[in-house]
Structures are given as C-alpha cells and as structure tokens.
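Question:
Now give any protein.
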Amino acid sequence: MEALSAAGGSGTADSRGIGAGRERFLTDAAARGLDVEIVERLAAHSLEEAALILGITPADIVKSLVVKHKDGSFLFALIPGDRQISWSKLRSLVGVNKLSMPPADVALEATGYERGTITPLGSTTPWPVYADQTLAGRRISMGAGQHGYSAFVDADALVASLGAVVADISDPN
C-alpha cells in the first residue's frame, strides 16, 4: 500500500481527471490543518472486505452518506461501518419529516464524488455535516475521493475541522 499525506501531496491528476477527487480531498484537508494519511489499496466489493484489506474493523471505516433534504439541499452523515443511519434520529435532529438517500448520479452532482469515494473533505459544495457520536476518540478510515484509496484521520480533528454536529444518529446494523 502506498501512503500519502496531506502535507506531502500525491502528484497531480492526469489528463482524464483521474486523481482529481483525491487532490481535492488532500487540498481541503491541508487547508483545514488535518493530518491525514492516504493509502492505496486493492479494490473492495464491500465495506467488510475493505476493512480486511486495511487490517481494521468495519467500525473503523466511516461511511460518508449524502442525504437529501426535502428542500433540495443536502447534508453529510458520518456513520461507522458497523452501524446504520437512524432516519428517525437524524430527521428529529435536523427538524424535518423527510430525508432520503439520492441516486448515485445526484450524489455525484451534489459532491463531485462517486459513491465509494464520497467524503465531506473536498466536496464541490460544503454541505452541513452530522457525525455519529460513536466516532469520538477514534482514528478512522474514510473515502479519499478516488476509488482504490482510503484515508486515515483522527475523528475528533475531522469533526472539529468540519464544524460537524455530533449526535446519536445511528443504530447497530
């Protein structure tokens, strides 16, 4: 696995735009003063498989979920891999009666990232972020803006740098 850091960079995107999402991720992380480590990894077909490849537990992988608000805006929900989003808890916290997961093409348009690479860092639009309270005090892995790469970061530093709302927004799988 190749390790890259926000401070050290990772080269530039090629002419097809491959790597552009990873570059946006690294640029935003560096601007926020976040210490991130990006590792290149084999393709994974599930979160559990990605955890195995990375040598961590599914709980240490954070899913960055793009959630559509009924008014047409979006938000990010950061949920540990061993948990699922609690729609009732998130709706109550946001103060609405309807939230939904948009189709893949809508999530791409809203963030600039394909599913499996989504992260609030470097999103083309800085949507509000809601982080599950179980992330506190942990080093986590998350999408790094490009397939085949994962980022490691301190969850508390990430949440603080994003100004995320921390609350109970998940349930066990």
Observations:
- The CA atoms of residues 68 and 106 lie 9 Å apart.
- The longest helix spans residues 20-31.
- DSSP finds five helices and eleven strands in the chain.
